[in-house]
């Protein structure tokens, strides 16, 4: 297993990376942080093999971080700014991911890291690994929520998984429906799909994700959640009906 940490000055971005890391079977999440100096401490202690690192951070830039870190661990850069790619590769980063990061692109970067790192992760380090994970795990409860962007730049809304009925995609926006409100946020449905646990959330249409445990009725090619009718797309129909028959 490759021990990973996500470092980004925006908690929302690091939570997305954490969700992605948890979906990859050969990656192990040590923690997330908005503080690059905390991440450097974990690296210095030998508790991290791979860092998913933002470049634009106020306290310490990603390039400065790379210079301090040296060769103590490997790095995948995550940023919205393509102009830093050359600087990154000059510091021997594994990959360079442009935000917003689709899960498929993240997985390719993880595979590159696996090729480089997994042979070097020896059984001799197992005790040290367990110590590092347990230290951070004590501060990291099992995630049962997501943060989504609000209407202003630094506003984020916490949405509990158990409250989500279904999600509708509207071009570059999504609407998250709960029993009490509709939350509109600037994000693609595809990116959000990569953040949500499966189950209970499943894509049933190019424009809809549903919570399976909130389905009241399936009738023909329609799903009913409370009083809302959601179509089942032709592309997703076979997998969806196979899923509900098995359940």
Automatic annotation (TrEMBL):
GO MF terms, alphabetically ordered: DNA binding; phosphorelay response regulator activity
Source organism, top-level taxon: Bacteria
Pfam families according to UniProt: LytTR (PF04397), Response_reg (PF00072)
PANTHER family the record matches: STAGE 0 SPORULATION PROTEIN A HOMOLOG, TRANSCRIPTIONAL REGULATOR-RELATED
SUPFAM superfamilies registered for this protein in UniProt: CheY-like (SSF52172)
Gene3D superfamilies xrefs: 3.40.50.2300, LytTr DNA-binding domain
Keyword Phosphoprotein: yes
Key word DNA-binding present: no
Species in which this protein is naturally found: Pedobacter nutrimenti
Keywords: Phosphoprotein
HTH LytTR-type domain segment(s): 148-246
The protein's name: LytTR family two component transcriptional regulator
Segments forming domain Response regulatory: 3-114
PTM sites of type 4-aspartylphosphate: 54
């Amino acid at each position: 297993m490759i021990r990973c940490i996500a470092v980004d000055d925006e908690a929302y971005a690091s939570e997305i990376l954490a969700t992605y890391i948890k979906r990859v079977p050969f990656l192990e999440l040590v923690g997330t942080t908005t503080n690059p100096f905390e991440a450097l401490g974990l690296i210095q202690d030998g508790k991290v093999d791979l860092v998913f690192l933002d470049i634009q951070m106020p306290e310490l830039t990603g390039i400065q971080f790379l210079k301090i870190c040296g060769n103590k661990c490997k790095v995948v850069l995550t940023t919205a700014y393509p102009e830093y790619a050359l600087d990154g590769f000059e510091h021997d980063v594994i990959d360079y991911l442009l935000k917003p990061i689709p899960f498929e692109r993240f997985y390719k970067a993880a595979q590159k890291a696996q090729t480089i790192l997994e042979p070097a992760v020896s059984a001799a380090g197992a005790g040290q690994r367990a110590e590092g994970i347990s230290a951070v795990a004590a501060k990291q409860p099992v995630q049962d929520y997501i943060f989504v962007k609000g209407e202003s730049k630094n506003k984020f809304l916490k949405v509990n998984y158990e409250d989500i009925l279904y999600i509708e995609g509207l071009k570059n926006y999504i609407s998250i429906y709960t029993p009490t409100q509709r939350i509109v946020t600037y994000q693609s449905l595809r990116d959000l799909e990569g953040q949500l646990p499966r189950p209970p959330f499943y894509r049933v249409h190019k424009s809809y994700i549903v919570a399976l445990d909130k389905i009241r009725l399936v009738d023909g090619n329609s799903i009913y959640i409370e009083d809302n009718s959601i179509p089942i797309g032709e592309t997703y129909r076979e997998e969806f009906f196979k899923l509900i028959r098995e359940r």
